[in-house]
Amino acid sequence: MTNTRRKIDLYILSLGLLFFFFIIININIPICFGDKCSFIGWRELLVSNPISIISLVLLIYCFFAYKKFDFDLKGTTELPFEIKKLESVNFEHLTFLATYVVPLISFDFGNSRQMIVLALLLVIMGVIYLKTDLFYANPSLALLGFQIYKSDGNFKNGNREGLILISRGKLNQNQKVLYIRLDDRIYYVRGII
Questions:
Q1: How many CB atoms lie within 10 A of CB 8?
Q2: Which one of 10, 97, 126, 149 has the largest count of C-beta atoms within 10 Å of its C-beta?
Q3: Rounded to an integer, what distance in angstroms lies between the CA atom of residue 189 and that of residue 176?
C-alpha cells in the first residue's frame, strides 16, 4: 500500500505545473483603484474562484507529497546498492509535459461538461500511468532538479538490469546509492559520497 500511495503522490506531483496554470487561467480577483473601492468579502471571493481554490489545495498537497517523499528516503532501511551501468533519460519529463499537461490547459473552464471530462481524464491518465509504471516521467520533479536514469545495479543479492532511478542530484557509474523501491524496477535514490 505504501508504494501505491507513493506512486499516486508522484502522479499528483507531476500535475503540479498544471494546477499552477489552472490558477493563473481561472483566478478572478476584482481589482479597483479609487476612493469608492471596497473588499467584496471572502465568501464572494471563494464562490467566484472554485477551480483556482481546488487547484491551490492540490498544489499545496503536491508540496507535502514531495516533502514526505524526500523524508522517506532519509529514513530508508535498505542496504545501498552500486550503480553498474548508467544512462540519462531526462527527455521523458518533456514527453509528459508536451503530450499531457499542455493540451489540458485548453479546456473551457466555464463549461461544466468540459470540467467533468477534464476531471475524468485526469483520473484515467493517473490509472494508466500507475498501471504502466510511467509515473516517474514527472515535469514537476524536473523543475525541482531531479534526474531520471536507466541503470543496472549490483545489490547484495545479485545484479538487476533495466532499473529506472529518480535522483535529486547527478549520479555516476560505480556510485553507491540509498533507495526507496517504488516498483519492481523503479527506485528513488540518493547518492552516497
A1: 16
A2: 10
A3: 10
> What average pLDDT does the structure give for the chain?
82
Residue range 159-187: mean pLDDT, rounded: 87
* Length of the chain measured in residues: 193
Answer whether residue 119 shows pLDDT above 90.
no
4-16 pLDDT, tens digit per residue, is 888 888 888 888 8
User: pLDDT tens digit string along 16-61?
Assistant: 888 998 899 888 877 777 777 777 778 887 888 888 899 999 999 9
Rounded to the nearest 10 degrees, what angle do helices 112-131 and 2-14 cross at? 130
Structural domain boundaries in the chain: 2-191
Cell representation of residue 184: 519492481
User: What's 159's DSSP letter?
Assistant: E
Sign of the alpha-carbon torsion through 110, 111, 114, 119: positive
User: Do the bridges between strand 81-88 and strand 147-155 make them parallel or antiparallel, or are there none, so unpaired?
Assistant: antiparallel
d(CA 36, CA 16): 38
